[in-house]
Design a protein that fits this description.
The structure is a single chain. Helix 2 crosses helix 3. This protein has one domain: Rossmann fold (3-Layer(aba) Sandwich). It starts with a helix and ends with a strand. The chain contains 4 helices and 10 strands. Strand 9 and strand 10 form a beta hairpin. The strands form 2 sheets. Strands 3-2-1-4-7-9-10 form a 7-stranded mixed beta sheet, with helices on both faces. A 3-stranded mixed beta sheet has the order 6-5-8. The chain is an alpha/beta fold. It is 28% helix and 19% strand. Keywords: ATP-binding, Ligase, Magnesium, Metal-binding, Nucleotide-binding.
């Protein structure tokens, strides 16, 4: 295990507990207002497809933001994790996004028992992604669960030439001075917490 990988592993253990302790029900509502009034206004982005996630295990809650964006004309989508192929054709799993109106309630369990739209629903390309995380820093470096699903997904989205805005969705307690990262980690464009929005360096 490299030095960066070991540092990430240690930090993940600490951040799981911190995230659960910091979680408050009102955080998502406050962050939703900040997203609309600060990030979307600055980015001058028109309603399109917004992808987020169904919150679990103390994750910062993006559902209030999705409800607000739905009222503004956005289409909502949720991630579906496609596991690695058993025959080795796909060495790493990846994330695709499929439409899922919030009015339909909690999606059924997908890979790893994470709520996800059924695979029969065609995937879509989001214009805005609210990205889950364990920790992040002001430079847009993100610590995830370690599987690299979102890093690969964001890298692929950015390669097709169409704009996509990656917003780290966090609680203020998850922002650190520095997060260990390497070249495989896809940086974020913005960070939004219940207190503020931070534009990350290009």
């Amino acid at each position: 295990m490299s030095g960066v990988s070991a540092a990430k592993a240690r930090l993940r253990v600490a951040m799981h507990g911190l995230r659960r302790a910091a979680h408050r029900p009102w955080h998502g509502i406050a962050a939703a207002g900040i997203l609309v009034h600060e990030v979307l206004a600055a980015a001058e982005i028109s309603p399109g497809i917004v992808a987020a996630y169904w919150p679990m295990a103390g994750e910062a809650d993006p559902l209030p933001a999705l409800r607000r964006l739905t009222d503004m004309g956005w289409q909502t989508a949720l991630p579906d994790i496609v596991p690695p192929a058993a025959d080795g054709a796909m060495r790493h799993g990846h994330v695709v996004f499929r439409p899922w109106p919030l009015a339909d309630g909690v999606p059924p369990p997908g890979a790893y028992r994470i709520p996800a739209p059924p695979a029969a629903i065609p995937a879509v390309r989001p214009d805005l992604v609210l990205v889950p995380l364990l920790a992040a820093d002001r430079r847009g470096r993100r610590l995830g669960q370690g599987a690299g699903f979102y890093d690969r997904c964001l890298a692929e989205l950015r390669q097709d030439g169409e704009p996509v805005l990656a917003v780290g969705w966090a609680m203020e307690a998850q922002l650190l001075r520095q997060v260990p990262a390497d070249d495989r980690d896809a940086p974020l464009d913005w960070l939004v917490t219940e207190r503020r929005a931070l534009r990350c360096p290009a």
